[in-house]
Amino acid sequence: MVRYEKADTLLQLAMDMQAARGGLSLGDIEDRYGVGRRTAMRMRDAVLRSFPQAEEVATDERIKRWRLPAGTLNRLVGFTAEELASLEAAVQLLDRDNREDEADTLAALSAKLKALMRPEVARRVEPDLEVLLEAEGLAMRPGPRPRIKVMVLEDLREAIKGSRKVRLRYRKRGMHQVKERLVHPYGFLYGHRNYLVGLHENPKANKVVLFSRLNIEAVEVLSDGFVRDPDFDLSAYAAQSFGLFQDEPFALVWRFAPEAADDDADFVFHPSQEIELQNDGSLLVRFTACSDLEMAWHLYAWGNKVEVLEPARLAAMVNGNRMAWPALP
């Protein structure tokens, strides 16, 4: 069994080497397979022995990389029912979260993969795929969801890819007046609402701002380009907030009651969180982020099972009202 598992891992590594156009380094192998340097070297050497057509990639780095030429493993690549079911589940998740354009793109990819399968393999996989999709069906998210403007999203994506300025016709929430905004589009954030992240063209307001996609009435993609701020990282920008709204981050300490501690220990409230189990069975959660209003919305769901210890502003919003809210079932 162990030998079969090793062969399977080496075949997967060979496929990864073919898929990586820039090649894989020893560090990449360590990270992808969770192994040490010596094991990574043995794995690389085994692939190079089995596939002598493997080549070292010339790069400007001091790190060596290896890849397999395109087409080397095409006859060996197959798709399992589990893999196709996961892809179908991703399509359903995107569709449920009101990201219909991305759902359509993944659905098209799924169809292409099925078209590549040999007929006899497809016939074997199809029944298992049906069962898995039925067993892992996704419940619809309760409550309303906004309609998206497909052309708006397509235009924004085109502008982001080409680093081109856009002129938005934008309506602020709660207002009927539509105003024009000249914006450098950077990317999207997805949550209970979906937002465009961009910079105002106006130098007086030249800071990163969020535009609700629901309130973007129309987009004009301009011929003028813009230079992206090299210091701006969308992932880092999103990670500094508890939700979508951005402000100055602050330190937080939440205490969850003993009867809720087991469930809460499995939650990832924020990437920077630290959890500490107390002697009385309660759980302290610490992290640094911003957007206290969104935190309050979330914490109300825990009822009287949570207490905010820091900061005082959030404690006033949550602790004084928590007894009026039902505890989690």
Write the layout of secondary structure elements.
Elements: H1 2-19, H2 26-33, H3 37-50, E1 55-57, E2 65-67, H4 81-96, H5 100-116, H6 119-135, H7 150-162, E3 164-171, E4 178-190, E5 194-200, E6 208-212, E7 216-225, H8 234-239, E8 250-256, H9 258-265, E9 274-277, E10 283-289, H10 292-300, E11 306-310, H11 312-318
Antiparallel strand pairs: 1-2, 3-4, 3-7, 4-5, 5-6, 8-10, 8-11, 9-10
Helix pairs in contact: 1-3, 2-3, 4-5, 4-6, 10-11
What would you say this structure looks like, in words?
InterPro entries: CBASS_pafABC_assoc_protein (IPR051534), WCX_dom (IPR057727), WYL_dom (IPR026881). It is a single chain. This protein has 329 residues and is of the alpha+beta class. It folds into 4 domains: 2-76, Winged helix-like DNA-binding domain superfamily/Winged helix DNA-binding domain (Arc Repressor Mutant, subunit A, Orthogonal Bundle); 81-135, no CATH class; 150-238, SH3 type barrels, CATH 2.30.30; 250-324, Alpha-Beta Plaits (2-Layer Sandwich). 40% of the residues lie in helices and 22% in strands. It has helices spanning 2-19, 26-33, 37-50, 81-96, 100-116, 119-135, 150-162, 234-239, 258-265, 292-300, 312-318, and strands spanning 55-57, 65-67, 164-171, 178-190, 194-200, 208-212, 216-225, 250-256, 274-277, 283-289, 306-310. Helix 2 (26-33) packs across helix 3, helix 4 (81-96) packs antiparallel against helix 5 and helix 10 (292-300) runs parallel beside helix 11 (312-318). The relative contact order is 0.07.
